[in-house]
Write a structure and sequence with these properties.
Elements: E1 2-5, E2 8-10, E3 16-22, E4 30-37, E5 44-49, E6 56-58, E7 66-71, E8 76-81, E9 90-98, E10 106-107, E11 111-115
Parallel strand pairs: 2-11
Antiparallel strand pairs: 1-3, 3-8, 4-5, 4-9, 5-6, 7-8, 9-10, 9-11
Length: about 120
């Protein structure tokens, strides 16, 4: 089960950290990631983190502004978002997949981030 939190409204240039409390998927067998979907647009990958947290990857539009991390002891995935832009406005979802799979098969319900 994945449960996101921490979304909200922020002014452009501001920062926000969203979290995803996960049960059973923050271990070294699962990769995790953040996705977002804006109204009228397709869902897009934002960031991903490897099973051991040692490798991360970012969409070009957020590279240098967003940081993905996880705390296995707390079963929590984070996305620190800095220098937010109006185009970052979207519903943000965390997701997980077993390391042997390509597609993410565990999804949270999403948390809304609005940048004005």
């Amino acid at each position: 089960q994945l449960v996101e939190s921490g979304g909200g409204s922020v002014q452009a240039g501001g920062s926000l950290r969203i979290s995803c409390t996960a049960s059973g998927v923050t271990d070294r067998r699962h990769c995790m990631g953040w996705f977002r979907q804006a109204p009228g647009k397709e869902r897009e990958a934002v960031a991903s983190i490897s099973t051991d947290g040692g490798s991360t990857d970012y969409a070009g539009s957020v590279k240098g502004r967003f940081t993905i991390s996880k705390d296995n002891a707390k079963n929590t995935l984070y996305l620190q978002m800095n220098s937010l832009k109006p185009e970052d406005t979207a519903m943000y979802y965390c997701a997980a997949r077993h390391r042997t799979l390509i597609q993410y098969n565990y999804w949270g319900q999403g948390t809304q981030v609005t940048v004005s």
